[in-house]
Amino acid sequence: MNLLRKLLFPFAILYGLITSIRNFLFDKGILKSYSFALPIIAVGNLSVGGTGKTPQIEYLIRLLSDKYKIATLSRGYKRQSKGFILAEANSNAATIGDEPFQFFQKFPSIQVAVDADRKNGIEQLLSQTEKPEIILLDDAFQHRKVKAGFYILLTSYSDLYSDDWMLPTGNLRESRSGANRANVIIVTKCPFNLSFEEQDDIKKRLKLLKSQELYFTFIAYDDCIYGENRKIKVDEIQHAAKVLVAGIAKPEPFFSYLQNSNDVCLSFPDHHNFTDKDILEIKNLAQNNIIITTEKDYVRLKGSLPSEQLFYLPIQSSFVSGPDSEASERSENFNKTILDYVGTSSRNS
């Protein structure tokens, strides 16, 4: 924690008080939460920064989309538009945001919508001719105006909410007690071989309720990179000179997976809108070498860089083995929890 953040501690106390009063008013029904007659799953976190919401939403889409009509609803962070938008053929990262556009491109069978007002967004989705049967709320843990039927809380292995402080001293959007609203807590971005002893230690530090389930996941990188018209095995380009570009919160694992001593790594802020100057810099550094970026950045860079040079590396969320179960059993248990909720839920309450 740097000195400035320590000096801002009184403001963190004030911010925590304000958010606690807000949560109290929602808990007591003084501020109204709205429920809807279909299963709604909210995925979010207590802290700002990258906890892996996008791969978790994609995991749920893969799990549910074969059996149900799915819609995702996001705020559409840094989009150049306002209000409710349902993604369609002319949509792009500028109009709906990079992560929703990624969902739209990868999963053509689902509905992808954005609206900062989640209540209005849900109402708009339900007014469509083809109504969704399940809505996945992206980054909506603090959006208490909507009462989801199931909450998944993510916390990063390297930045557990139990060890954090309120903004601006720390990164918490609300107090640690907000975790009590979660049905499932997932510690994300873990080492794939996280020891059973450390898992047990983290469980104790998080102080779960008896009703809550805890899982540990890691980021699994694809063994291929993908361009507009072709894919290449990572092994084939591991030692080739290349430019690696990332506009995500914590790019170090992405770089370390691909990087060799000949590579240039360019790191930009999360959800960065690439300028003409940025594009020129990337082109000048790359020359004729390939450019590899994250999947989220690819949807914003595509069309601005030569298609024969530009590639992205997909990721997925995978489960870590536990002391009493293999990784496959952990994923099956998680899947069962989600499917049981969806199968038995006719109304969020």
TrEMBL record:
Record pathway:
Glycolipid biosynthesis; lipid IV(A) biosynthesis; lipid IV(A) from (3R)-3-hydroxytetradecanoyl-[acyl-carrier-protein] and UDP-N-acetyl-alpha-D-glucosamine: step 6/6
Query: InterPro entries this protein is in?
Result: LpxK (IPR003758), P-loop_NTPase (IPR027417)
Task: List the catalysed reactions.
Answer: a lipid A disaccharide + ATP = a lipid IVA + ADP + H(+)
Q: Which Pfam families match?
A: LpxK (PF02606)
Give any single GO term for biological process.
Answer: lipid A biosynthetic process
GO MF entries: ATP binding; lipid-A 4'-kinase activity
What GO cellular component is one of the record's annotations?
plasma membrane
* Enzyme's top EC category: transferase
Keyword line: ATP-binding, Kinase, Lipid A biosynthesis, Lipid biosynthesis, Lipid metabolism, Membrane, Nucleotide-binding, Transferase, Transmembrane, Transmembrane helix
Chain segments annotated as transmembrane: 7-25
Q: What is its EC number?
A: 2.7.1.130
Family matches, as SUPFAM superfamilies:
P-loop containing nucleoside triphosphate hydrolases
Residues holding ATP:
S47, V48, G49, G50, T51, G52, K53, T54
Q: Which HAMAP family does UniProt cross-reference here? A: LpxK
Q: Which family does it belong to?
A: Belongs to the LpxK family.
Q: What does this protein do?
A: Transfers the gamma-phosphate of ATP to the 4'-position of a tetraacyldisaccharide 1-phosphate intermediate (termed DS-1-P) to form tetraacyldisaccharide 1,4'-bis-phosphate (lipid IVA).
Q: What's the protein called, per UniProt?
A: Tetraacyldisaccharide 4'-kinase
